């Protein structure tokens, strides 16, 4: 015998897709989101951009080092 919650879920699955219910559910979930302030958004975006630049620089330097090393060994 199915529990009450399971029966409702089965009925919802059988009913098919409802765009209205989907949009209502989406709106309810977006209302729960805590959006960052403008200052927090800017500072965290700057931190991400800085870390991407530093990571790219590190990869570039390591690549050049190994390129230089392989040129000394094989060239």
Automatic annotation (TrEMBL):
Keywords linked to the UniProt accession: Cell inner membrane, Cell membrane, Membrane, Protein transport, Thylakoid, Translocation, Transmembrane, Transmembrane helix, Transport
InterPro entries recorded: SecE_bac, SecE_sf, Translocase_SecE/Sec61-g
Locations listed in the record: Cell inner membrane; Cellular thylakoid membrane; Membrane
Keyword Membrane: yes
Membrane topology (UniProt): Single-pass membrane protein
Residues passing through the membrane, by range: 41-62
Main location group: membrane
Highest taxon listed in the record's lineage: Bacteria
Record bears the keyword Cell membrane: yes
Primary role: Essential subunit of the Sec protein translocation channel SecYEG. Clamps together the 2 halves of SecY. May contact the channel plug during translocation.
Assembly notes: Component of the Sec protein translocase complex. Heterotrimer consisting of SecY, SecE and SecG subunits. The heterotrimers can form oligomers, although 1 heterotrimer is thought to be able to translocate proteins. Interacts with the ribosome. Interacts with SecDF, and other proteins may be involved. Interacts with SecA.
Family that this chain belongs to: Belongs to the SecE/SEC61-gamma family.
Stated name of the protein: Protein translocase subunit SecE
Organism: Floridaenema aerugineum BLCC-F46
Lineage of the species this protein comes from: Bacteria, Bacillati, Cyanobacteriota, Cyanophyceae, Oscillatoriophycideae
């Amino acid at each position: 015998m199915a529990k009450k919650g399971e029966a409702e879920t089965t009925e919802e699955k059988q009913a098919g897709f409802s765009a209205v219910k989907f949009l209502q559910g989406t709106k309810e979930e977006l209302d729960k989101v805590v959006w960052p302030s403008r200052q927090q958004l800017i500072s965290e975006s700057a931190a991400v951009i800085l870390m991407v630049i530093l990571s790219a620089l590190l990869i570039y330097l390591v690549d050049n080092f190994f390129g230089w090393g392989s040129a000394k060994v094989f060239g």
